[in-house]
Amino acid sequence: MVYVTNLTACPGGSPVTPELVISSYGRLFEIEELPHVQARPAGQARHHRKPDSIEAHLAIVFAALSVSRWIEARTGRSIRKFVRTARRYRTIQVQAGQHTLIAEDPLPADLRQALDHIRHPNDTH
């Protein structure tokens, strides 16, 4: 398998290593498996035939990868487990004339804990 990147350095300035590129592609495949992310090879995407569209699509996929890694680092959970936990939370807003009514499920303890780790990563709760 061949891996290609146009990176010359990481955002922090560290060099791009073959291990980094290979692990990033591996993580990309994990992200693609999530039901809410549709990252397909460019040739299979109906709406992504132009280079600008392909690059924009890949930028979104890699942004999802970055956010997923950030959440994993902050919570100590896989992104799959975090999404599964967050899906259980429901809220709805209804506009009734001049009033907005809000109904929401209580925040599950494990989701509250994960969100606390995202907001305050150095705190030990």
Please provide a written account of the structure:
With 125 residues, this protein is mainly alpha-helical. It folds into two domains: 18-84, no CATH class; 89-119, no CATH class. Helices cover 49% and strands 10% of the residues. The protein has helices at 18-33, 51-75, 79-87, 109-119, and strands at residues 91-96, 99-104. The chain has a two-stranded antiparallel sheet. Helix 1 packs across helix 2. The longest helix is centred in the middle third of the chain and has 25 residues, at 51-75. The termini are far apart.
Secondary-structure topology with pairs:
Elements: H1 18-33, H2 51-75, H3 79-87, E1 91-96, E2 99-104, H4 109-119
Antiparallel strand pairs: 1-2
Helix pairs in contact: 1-2
Radius of gyration: 19 Å
Give the rounded overall mean pLDDT: 76
Q: What sequence of helices (H) and strands (E) makes up the elements?
A: HHHEEH
Biggest beta sheet attributes: 2 strands, antiparallel
How many helical elements? 4
Q: What is the count of distinct domains?
A: 2
Task: Compute the separation of the termini in Å.
Answer: 44 Å
Q: Strand fraction band?
A: 5-15%
| Strands, count | 2
Q: Which residues sit in consecutive blocks of at least 5 with pLDDT less than 50?
A: none
Globular, elongated, flat, extended or rod-shaped: what is the shape?
extended
The residue fraction in helices comes out at 40-55%
Strand order of the largest sheet: 1-2
What is the SS-derived class?
mainly alpha
